[in-house]
Amino acid sequence: MSTIPDPVAAPSEVLPRRQSRVWRKFRKNKAALLGGILVAFFVIVALLAPIVPIPGPTETDWGAVRKAPSVAHPFGTDEIGRDVLSRMIWGARASLLAGVVSVGIAVCIGVPLGVLSGYLRGWTDASVSRVTEALLAAPFLILAIALAAFLGPSLTNAMIAIGLSAVPIFIRLARGQTMAVMTEDYVESARAIGLTHIALITRYILPNIVPPILVQGTLTIATAIIAEASLSFLGLGQQPPAPSWGSMLNVAKNFLEQAPWMALYPGAAIFLVVLGFNLLGDGLRDALDPRDH
Amino acid sequence: MTAILSTRDLRKDFVTARPLFGAATVVRAVAGVSIDIEHGETFAIVGESGCGKSTLARLLLRLIDPSAGEVWYKGEDLARVPPARLRALRRDLQFIFQDPFSSLNPQMTVGALIEEPMRAHGIGTPRERRARVADLLTRVGLRPEHGDRYPHEFSGGQRQRIGIARALASGPSVLIGDEPVSALDVSIQAQVVNLLEDLKEEFGLTLVIIAHDLAVIRHMADRVAVMYLGEVVECAPAADLYAQPLHPYTEALMAAIPVASFGARPARTTLEGDPPNPIAPPPGCKFHPRCPYATDICRTERPVLTPAGAGRIIACHHAAALSLQGLADVTPARTPWASARFDLYARAMADRTLSNNRLKSGDITPPTDGGST
Q1: Does an H or E element contain B238, and which?
Q2: Which of residues 189-218 of A touch B (CB under 8 A)?
Q3: Using the beta-carbon criterion (under 8 Å), do A192 and B366 form an inter-chain contact?
Q4: What does pTM read for this prediction?
Q5: Are the beta carbons of B104 and A189 separated by less than 8 Å?
Q6: Which of A146, A204, A198, A135 is nearest to A172 (CA)?
Q7: Residue A291 in contact with partner chain B when CB distance is under 8 A
Q8: What is the pLDDT of residues A182-192, one digit of tens each?
Q9: pLDDT digits (tens, 9 = 90+) for B269-299
């Protein structure tokens, strides 16, 4: 052909996909990997609870009350002869479930409200924001305790209470991110081609605000696990005899000198799982940081 | 020729501060613009930063709501049509954005981005749409398989091509480009300008191009409107405007175009100072504080747009009296040998155009094994 080859027609260098770059950055971050491993460990342990050959979490053995760790009971036994390891493993289910479900509740309520608030602005935004600010004025844990006390003590109610308390965080985040995305040219381009509001929100705004919400969600799971442990410690969460790290600590505090293992293991577990989620969240934040793309 | 898109006294005010007491501070970004864009032409709107040209472009498509005035497209006032009708009309009126890096949704593949306007307007079956996406990618100089990639995998020029393909997808009749090439490298600018011209011919489009300098649109525009502080100060057929501007501001814009020849221009008319604060524009002619020809009348009386013959309109008290300098095609001084080489080149190019035309008309059949373009 007689036309001059167009230098633009063939992209010489194709950049790697964003997903793979995020993963590569994440892998290089040792702390984030450690967080991921910790979280994965607790999730696997919680999932395997019904399979591993351990005594039931509520089986009592009056011949072995407050026994120190041994071969038969690697983590020792508690004040009515229950195996601490078994209660730890089953307790992991309550903690992780509380973390995930309550954050799920917070995201499902907070994100739509925040996006609508940031998208519609005006009166919707003003009213949603004022209520959010009022809720944020109350400390997270106090709010959760008040709500849990109001709803009545049970693990389900504790999860609802924690979830509702975390809603304002997600409203705020989703609103701010929506407003930031709305200033991008591609949102204007979506309006220019004649998209409906629903298509614009689902295809343009939501996908672009996922990364910060993912990070906040991971970090909030850690907070929610502490909150669940606190509520159970106070007797507002998981009800005895069902196992929970928080309620184990509550009993263990009476025997700190005679049976320190009763407090040590649940305390360490809470510490590790919260550390794991925090490291994972921080790692995700760094890996998803758009400034490096 | 009939007008396809017209504005009547179009205005847009932005409120910059609204104190609890007293009057709000208002910027009149577009202060009463009436233009007629004719079917099939390339209409350029030029002016320096902050003159309201991008605002005007957005008003033309009602991407922002006007404060007052009308925008007529095929017998409908875009400023007043209900939202559902406006959405339907967007099929005909499309926009090309200035910044190719922020105007494509990073979460969507290029194919999905180009297909989206067709989906939004219910055009074709999924299979037909995919075929059209591949076709559009080819027309803008990319390859069909690029549809599976994400915008960040492309360069600025390529992204702008993607933006153009997306704008063409719904089969529009009017394409409005807000400085479509100013974010690109100069070498890429020419390619995109040529592409736009080819596509205009191929799809029978009406093009509205916003630009901040007269150089880019010189060989592209049929008519040019020059804006200053939210108003059109001169509007004329491009050839006439470049040959002899009637407004001192147009002359100053032309003086800013570099000419690659020593002594091609006797003296430079450079503008002093910045444009006045649009919150408090000067009385009289808005251009008078910077105008080298300003007189007393310019300081007190605002000039109105008046016809100046040959399809030109001009807002200047002294338009008839001034003889302003345009941009003549100058032949730079060359040595005899250089001249000979340029002649040779010109002849070769003419031959090429000739054979291309014969190729197109079918006199010659191109080789089928085909080199790739």
Answers
A1: helix B238-243
A2: 189-196, 199, 203-204, 207-208
A3: no
A4: 0.81
A5: yes
A6: A135
A7: no
A8: 999 999 999 99
A9: 567 777 788 788 888 888 888 888 888 888 8
